[in-house]
């Protein structure tokens, strides 16, 4: 960054960070993502002008322009020559983007976004289980069995259980060979795996019930029964989420 980019703080400005970030453009973009998703800048409204953003964040025009370009790449704004920068409709936002997805889930009062995440995950993972049942060799079957058996021993340790749970699902996805579907699922889960709203409050009975689903998936894959493996994965993901939802809100998005 050049000296000209290190704009001095403007009187009255109140940047949202206590320490000046190493990458100012990324920090400004992240804050604007949160503000747009949170409704501070509603869809169809103009984004504040460059001078206003410079003053708000105590940064140079170069930094602001780079941040706005990042927003444009995420689908949150549209830049038109002579018309300024306008916030786009949510339908155009890239929800696979880490910042956009995290902000959407974080700002939402209900569980609609998490329900949609689960529906997407079960669709992809049930298809990958279908293929995995066809392709699984003896080594994969042995590894799946070992994970299921180990999870039976970890039902009182929800942290270790969760690690093996993720390893089980990831092995099924890897076995399918669908790298794109696996990458989508991993990207989605990375934003919610540490949130209570998604993970719930794990307890022994929940882990026991969850592992019954894993064992059913393992058994159908080991028997190379693709249709049953797909159905077992679909049912497992749905039922596990319904337990973690704890009856909160309307669950009609999960209806098949």
What can you see in these coordinates?
With 256 residues, the protein is mostly helical. Helix content is 62%, strand content 3%. The chain contains eleven helices and two strands, in the order H-H-H-E-E-H-H-H-H-H-H-H-H. A two-stranded antiparallel sheet has the order 1-2. The longest helix has 24 residues.
Low-pLDDT sequence parts: 1-13
Which CATH C-level class of the largest domain is it? Mainly Alpha
Radius of gyration: 23 Å
At the fourth CATH level, what is the homologous superfamily of the largest domain?
A: GntR ligand-binding domain-like
> Mean pLDDT, rounded to whole units?
89
Largest sheet: spatial strand order: 1-2
Named CATH architecture of the largest domain? Up-down Bundle
Order of helices and strands: HHHEEHHHHHHHH
Query: What distance separates the N and C termini?
Result: 52 Å
CATH topology of the largest domain: Four Helix Bundle (Hemerythrin (Met), subunit A)
Name the beta content range: under 5%
Based on secondary structure, the structural category is: mainly alpha
How many domains make up the 3D coordinates?
A: 2
Task: Write a brief caption for the model.
The protein is mainly α and 256 residues long.
In terms of topology, how is this protein built?
Layout: H1 24-37, H2 50-57, H3 61-73, E1 77-80, E2 84-87, H4 98-107, H5 112-135, H6 138-153, H7 158-176, H8 179-190, H9 196-199, H10 204-222, H11 226-245
Antiparallel strand pairs: 1-2
Helix pairs in contact: 1-3, 1-4, 2-3, 5-7, 5-8, 5-10, 5-11, 6-7, 6-10, 7-10, 10-11
